[in-house]
Amino acid sequence: MPPADGARPEFDPETVHRYENFIDKQLREDLRKLLVERDKVYEQMSDHYKLRNSIETIKESRQIELKTLVDIGQNIYCNARVPNCSELFVDIGFGFQLEMTVEEADAYIEEKLALLQLKADAITEKANGVRANIKTVLRALQELQLAIDLRD
């Protein structure tokens, strides 16, 4: 808030330091967290795209039985045989799997992908807002530094 007499406030190197700390400790950390969150959403989307591709393969081949490799953890795979591919168990979150037909699973995956895309877009918008805030504060810092340099 400007002083009551209308004079410009005095800025010192400590004020510049506080702004720099705000950028480094608050804004950049907020941006990092948002980008990590968005990357997790992208990983979920990747998993759902893989599942959708598998479902498409099952639908196109019209196989009743399927032989495949299953990741049992830490990139260790074992052979698996699925005797009936007409129904699948799909992980719907919170540790629940739901039995669905191939068509139901395909529709579920499409809806889930659309929701994940909306979530990723919202996080990207927030990240862009934080980036804009960083640029604004950096511009303000440049002006403060210029004012300090001119004063001295």
Automatic annotation (TrEMBL):
Looking up CDD domains in the UniProt record yields: Prefoldin_UXT
Name any one Pfam family assigned in the record: Prefoldin
> Its family?
Belongs to the UXT family.
Please name the SUPFAM superfamilies in this protein's record.
Prefoldin (SSF46579)
State any single GO MF term: transcription corepressor activity
PANTHER family, per this entry? Answer: MEDIATOR OF RNA POLYMERASE II TRANSCRIPTION SUBUNIT 10 (PTHR13345), PROTEIN UXT (PTHR13345:SF9)
**Gene3D superfamilies with a match to the protein in the record:** 1.10.287.370
Identify one Gene Ontology CC term for this UniProt entry: mediator complex
Which first-to-last residue range defines the signal peptide? none
The entry's protein name is: Prefoldin, alpha subunit
InterPro entries assigned: Prefoldin, Prefoldin_subunit_alpha, UXT
Q: Which domain of life is it from?
A: Eukaryota
A GO biological process held by the record: positive regulation of transcription by RNA polymerase II
